[in-house]
Amino acid sequence: MTTAAAGSPRTYQVRTYGCQMNVHDSERISGLLEDAGYVRAAEADEQPDVVVFNTCAVRENADNRLYGNLGHLRPVKAKHPGMQIAVGGCLAQKDRGDIVRKAPWVDVVFGTHNIGSLPALLDRARHNTAAEVEILESLEVFPSTLPTRRESTYAGWVSISVGCNNTCTFCIVPSLRGKEKDRRPGDILSEVRALVDSGVLEVTLLGQNVNSYGVEFGDRYAFGKLLRACGDIDGLERVRFTSPHPKDFTDDVIAAMAETPNVCHSLHMPLQSGSDDVLRAMRRSYRSERYLGIIEKVRAAMPDAAITTDIIVGFPGETEADFARTLDVVREARFSSAFTFQYSKRPGTPAATMDGQLPKQVVQERYERLIACVEEITWAENKKLVGETVEVLVAVGEGRKDERTGRMSGRARDGRLVHFATGELAGRIRPGDIVHTVVTYAAPHHLNADGAPLAHRRTRAGDAAEAGQVPRTPGVLLGLPTVGAPAAAPAPVGGCAAH
């Protein structure tokens, strides 16, 4: 028995936690389910036929969050026979069968290497009325060959690699995502062209370590070549990438960024710590001098470049002097934004068992000082843009106060968030359109443009947003079971299929 009405397709929801890679994986999960005949449930629907959790294992409390959410769904499922719950992503890869032992009402557990198996696993669990747990140790098929339901009409993620060959002591990703697997350049560019043909203006190239791209086929300059090749795609207006590793950063990438007009002058490059001793303990194979040297070269080639970073506070053994060095590097680097984290243990990582674990109050106090330092710098850097004209790609959901303030929001070419007044163009500007406007006010995390826009360009992405369309990238299910649409639901009868 199912929760769907007789003859109607089964509905689904995907709930995502974690990084951009997980967000993009969720687009693939949605694409697979829709390709198999499922229909996305309305956001307000509290009882879809299938709920998929795409999990993250990076933070210490990731499992508590998952099991708490699974607990909330247990009574919902009990009242709606035939409802299915699936758990995938990094935490599923790590915990495997433990998930079903701890939450026996879960129907399917799948890992990071076999996303494409989900529809078949749901069918099998429904047929057998028993949980299906399938975790592969290596990649079954490169994920981008799977059908994808894109969440944006104007911006798209494109994976160039999966996995990571680094051994950072705080990171569990390599053990969950595996060794780096690189996609062939022609396949990447074909996907980019397909997105552009559907109206997408901006593409972000994704990888655990994008600038080591090419290691698998022996070309250490492959990433710079890929950026330049993106510059030859007509209609592609913005190219971004995340995240590079400082140890693999080469001068040819800086040249490609500077010389390829559609590559944005924005760079997200994780620092993690400004202390060489801590970097050594983290097994990050660069030092602060090398890191700052890259930034110096980037700014010499692109003076307008906006550089963002990741920083961890309170790594085991971090001294006050180590932390002070991090603040020094932050001041010297002049970041436009920083993602800051308090160190937390990741089970299964070397750092989790290191000596010198710091008290919570010490970590918290340093974290607050870091936030204050970062915001002082980002505010000063943003103030330099007051009076400047910026090109804004209009976005959805970037400005939480937009409805109250009468503004719309989007990202400038350098990645900064801009809230802008629409003036006489109110009601005519759509997500995906391009607006030129003048910055009138700066805050640490955003810019305001309160005058009337100087120019507004309607785009195909805006047309698609207005029509309620989202791009869909077809996939080739290489080596996977053939999956058809789920059978239409029979008329409800008594009984309970929940387990």
UniProtKB/TrEMBL annotation:
Its EC number is 2.8.4.3. Binds 2 [4Fe-4S] clusters. One cluster is coordinated with 3 cysteines and an exchangeable S-adenosyl-L-methionine. GO terms for cellular component: cytosol. [4Fe-4S] cluster 2 binds at C164, C168, C171. InterPro entries: Elp3/MiaA/NifB-like_rSAM (IPR006638), Methylthiotransferase (IPR005839), Methylthiotransferase_CS (IPR020612), Methylthiotransferase_N (IPR013848), Methylthiotransferase_N_sf (IPR038135), MiaB_methiolase (IPR006463), rSAM (IPR007197), rSAM_horseshoe (IPR023404). Gene3D superfamilies: Methylthiotransferase, N-terminal domain (3.40.50.12160), tm_1862 like domain (3.80.30.20). GO terms for molecular function: 4 iron, 4 sulfur cluster binding; metal ion binding; tRNA-2-methylthio-N(6)-dimethylallyladenosine(37) synthase activity. It is found in: Cytoplasm. It holds the Pfam family Radical_SAM. Keywords: 4Fe-4S, Cytoplasm, Iron, Iron-sulfur, Metal-binding, S-adenosyl-L-methionine, Transferase, tRNA processing. [4Fe-4S] cluster 1 binds at C19, C56, C90. Belongs to the methylthiotransferase family. MiaB subfamily. Monomer. Catalyzes the methylthiolation of N6-(dimethylallyl)adenosine (i(6)A), leading to the formation of 2-methylthio-N6-(dimethylallyl)adenosine (ms(2)i(6)A) at position 37 in tRNAs that read codons beginning with uridine. This is tRNA-2-methylthio-N(6)-dimethylallyladenosine synthase. It comes from Micromonospora tulbaghiae. The gene is miaB.
